[in-house]
Structure to design on (203 residues):
């Protein structure tokens, strides 16, 4: 954490871009206090919102380096990313439900159980897909970016989330479904990166 903040301070002083420092400090503090005292966010039912917010912070850091600071485009684009971050954190919490319950963590699966947590994942991923599709109507982005394509790619997450709702529900089944969703998030991230790189970098 100290190294990232130090580098951000140097960058801010050199290029006079304080937004990068602010975002770096915010992201570092959220990561640290996710489980560390005195805040221990994951023990207070705030682990999921904290993780979802990183869906704005980290893309905004890279965007701020290129564009000089956050604007309406990164705000709009980060909303579906935050929803997918919510899918991510709930998904990794589900297999640890028993351990978290014994350890005193107030995660969403601890409160709601596996099936209702999976339903929230479906709602979040489906909403992310719809919002990505709606971004195609915005005039704020480069006309070369087809958000309908990105929305279609996000189905690689939404469909496994729906599939995860069905099964025996035993510990092995829960773990395998969580692994499937995790792999789907990785695949979407890779496909999205390849698409955007192709569109924005290739002449």
């Amino acid at each position: 954490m100290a190294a990232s903040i130090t580098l951000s301070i140097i960058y801010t002083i050199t290029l006079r871009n304080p937004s990068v420092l602010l975002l770096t400090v915010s992201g570092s503090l959220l990561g640290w206090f996710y489980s560390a005292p005195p805040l221990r966010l994951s023990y207070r039912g705030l682990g999921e919102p904290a993780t979802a917010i990183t869906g704005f912070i980290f893309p905004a850091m890279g965007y701020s380096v290129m564009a000089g600071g956050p604007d309406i485009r990164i705000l709009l684009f980060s909303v579906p990313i935050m929803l997918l971050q919510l899918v991510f954190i709930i998904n990794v919490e589900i297999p640890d439900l028993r351990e978290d319950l014994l350890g005193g963590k107030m995660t969403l699966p601890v409160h709601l159980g596996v099936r209702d947590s999976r339903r929230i994942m479906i709602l979040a991923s489906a909403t992310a897909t719809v919002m990505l599709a709606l971004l195609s109507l915005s005039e704020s982005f480069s006309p070369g970016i087809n958000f309908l394509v990105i929305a279609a790619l996000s189905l690689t997450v939404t469909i496994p989330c729906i599939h995860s709702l069905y099964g025996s529900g035993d510990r092995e089944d829960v773990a395998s479904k969580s692994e499937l969703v995790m792999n789907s998030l990785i695949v979407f991230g890779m496909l999205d990166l390849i698409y955007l790189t192709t569109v924005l970098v290739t002449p």
Notes: Residues 171-200 form the longest helix (30 residues). The chain has a mean pLDDT of 89. The CA atoms of residues 30 and 40 lie 10 Å apart.
